[in-house]
Amino acid sequence: MKRRVTAVVAAALAVALVLPLAAGCSFFGRSAGAKGSQNPGPDPGSNTAPSDTPAQPPPPPPPKSPISGLEYKPENAGPLVAVMVENHPDARPQSGLVDADLVYEALAEGGISRFMALYFGRTPSVIGPVRSARPYYVVLAKEWDAIYVHCGGDPKDREPIKQLDLADAAEIYTAGEAFWRSKDRVAPHNLYTTVAMDRAHVAKFEPERKLAATPPSRWEFAGWAETPLSEIRVDYGWGYVVSYKYDASDKAYRRYMNGDAHTDKETGKQIEAANILIQYVPQRVAYPDGGLVMDQVGTGQGLYVAGGRLIKGTWAKAGLNSTTQFLDGDGKAISLVAGQTWVQIVPTTAKVTYSGQ
Are the beta carbons of 101 and 65 closer than 8 angstroms? Predict the structure, then answer.
């Protein structure tokens, strides 16, 4: 009996000791969880919010063409390409002019003008119809250190290419693989090319030639005029009139030829210019075939519409290897606005009219 009582007392003492310890484990477990367990719970007494993820820097802005001031895709950039594009009625509408950074227009034989389109960061899938070289366009291509793209030409037209040491892509003589003939037009108004094909030709056949991957900046860019000039017309004679009409909805000058919208064959889009630079250049017929000579070195009068601002000034070119400077009335370089620029090279007797400013 005495042994049984002793066992009962021992059991009671054991229970009394275990209960406080169990309660103590529960308490300390909560405390450890709040302060330092591997899966800590929220601290109800804290108002501190979790730290945010560090902000990522914004992506760099797209690059802009030093010629047009417009954004372009870096993968499209490369050496400048200058393509001779014809303007015979059977060649209209042309392909690819709408995407050029800059376009020159000057007379060829018979009172019909011809274009030279410059491409840097925009690479349309089709450019043309491509036609033959002219010496005064060779001089302009040299200004830009561009690949000169044409179908060929008379010896008098091709010789300056060698003299000025241009990268040459001529369909007839050197670069047939960079051109193709379209079946939807009759020859000679059906020759086409691309920027990529012209660059590839020079890279393959003139690997020693070092052409700039990015052209140098030639002018500053400014904003549009508050009240842009509404229209300007350039009469080349022979019933051939170019006009530009300001469109406020697009903030650009829509281009017309003899009153008809000048559109792109591939897209149907009307060509739009931001700057129209009219350069008066003495010119004369100098060859039996009607070929012209133009006095591009020296100085002359200029009339410029830059972002809607009408500027009466001058142009100057010191030598064949120099760039043409377009200057205001005070002899300072004019500023352009971002967008396509057209340089209209006209005879000194050309009639130019404008209105709206």
Answer: yes
Q: How far is CA 232 from the centre of its chain?
A: 24
142 occurs within a structural domain: yes
Question: Is residue 264 one of the residues assigned to a domain?
Answer: yes
Whether 26 is covered by a domain: the verdict is no
Structural domain for 103, as ranges? 74-205
Same domain assignment for residues 191 and 293: no
Domain-terminating residue out of 205, 220, 251: 205
The number of domains in the chain is 2
Does one domain contain both 189 and 240?
A: no
Residue 311's CATH number: 3.50.90.10
- Helix 155-163 vs helix 135-144: crossing angle, to nearest 10: 20
* Whole-prediction pTM: 0.84
Identity of residue 60:
P
- Is there a single domain that holds both residue 179 and residue 278? no
What is d(CA 124, CA 319) in angstroms, rounded to the nearest whole number? Answer: 33
356 three-state secondary structure? coil
Identify the residue whose tokens are 């140098």: 216
Q: Which of 30-34, 75-79, 154-158, 350-354 shows the lowest mean pLDDT across its residues? A: 30-34
State the CB neighbour count (10 A cutoff) for residue 295: 14
Tokens 């000034």, located at residue = 313
Using one digit for the tens of pLDDT, what is the confidence trace for 64-93? 999 999 999 999 999 999 999 999 999 999
Render pLDDT for 285-328 as a digit per residue (tens, 0 to 9): 999 999 999 999 999 999 999 999 999 999 999 999 999 999 99
User: Measured between alpha carbons, how far is 287 from 153 in angstroms, rounded to an integer?
Assistant: 14
Helix (H/G/I), strand (E/B), else coil: 44: coil
The answer to whether the CB of 119 falls within 8 A of the CB of 81 is yes
Residue 172 sits in the same domain as residue 131: yes
DSSP structure string for 242-277: EEEEEETTTTEEEEEETTEE-B-TTT-PBPEESEEE
